[in-house]
Amino acid sequence: MLTVLHIVVIFSVLFVTFSQEDIQVSCLNNSVSIAWKIQADLVPFAERIFLGSCKPSYVDVLPTGEGKVLFDYSYDECRFTKRIKGKYDVYENKFTFKPLPGEKPADFVFPIRCPTNRSDSWFPPFLNPGAGSSEARGGLVFHMALLNAELTGIAKSNIIPLGTFMPIWASVDQQLHQPLLLLMEECIAATTPKLYPASEVYPVITNKGCLMESQRGKSVFLPRYHSSSIILYLQAFRFGLGQEVYIHCKLVAWDPDSFDQTKKTCHYSKKNERRDSGEMLNLEGLFMAQF
């Protein structure tokens, strides 16, 4: 006997009709509120309505059986994109309905566009001068800055092409203290403005003042013009491409006569390189440049 099995698949088609007047968008400076009145047969599928990657904040079922879907999110959420246009920051996203999970195209797409007034104090990130100060114990004030190529002032741009040099200047205010010796004890590069246990980092200066990056490229410490200041002439390296990179340094100030194994400034000197070694040695080594 031949048995034939038939599988019957029933497709349910949901027709969605809407007009632009059904969707109310309220753009604020830091957030957006969206309300959409939906037809009754769409209410069971309300959780399949998205603002970017976000689901509704609230769904209200009306006495008529219709529904009202509400979204209330900041521009930092839902994968908003930001464009700078004239004096405005323009935040953009897509309002979509996807009745089925997966990568299938949305049944409809409604663009969301919110222009907001930009602060008068804003300027483009690439013009953000890389400079800052910090006060430590004892009233000591430390400074760091990214200098221009001529070493005559703060750089006007913090965009550094790969392979070019970035002069990083650091100093400590002498004030009423005795003459001070400034040292860069440690520096690392990271893709975050603050360091976290999971932060991706790249060592630049380690071992209490040794410029490890000088082994891989042409980075050096420039000769000092004063004991309380130092310039790290750092060659831009391949790290965090396409992302903002932050240089985090630990600065210390000591008596100028207190150089020892734990208080030093050194880089790898290729002029004194031994053929059988590529190591950076300590203060007694041949490869030490001390200023």
Automatic annotation (TrEMBL):
PROSITE patterns in UniProt: ZP_2
Keywords: Disulfide bond, Signal
Keyword presence, Signal: yes
Signal peptide limits: 1-19
Ranges where the ZP domain occurs: 26-273
GO biological process: binding of sperm to zona pellucida; egg coat formation; positive regulation of acrosome reaction
GO cellular component annotations of the record: extracellular matrix
Coiled coil: none
Designated name of the protein: ZP domain-containing protein
Record-level Gene Ontology MF annotations: acrosin binding
Organism of origin: Knipowitschia caucasica
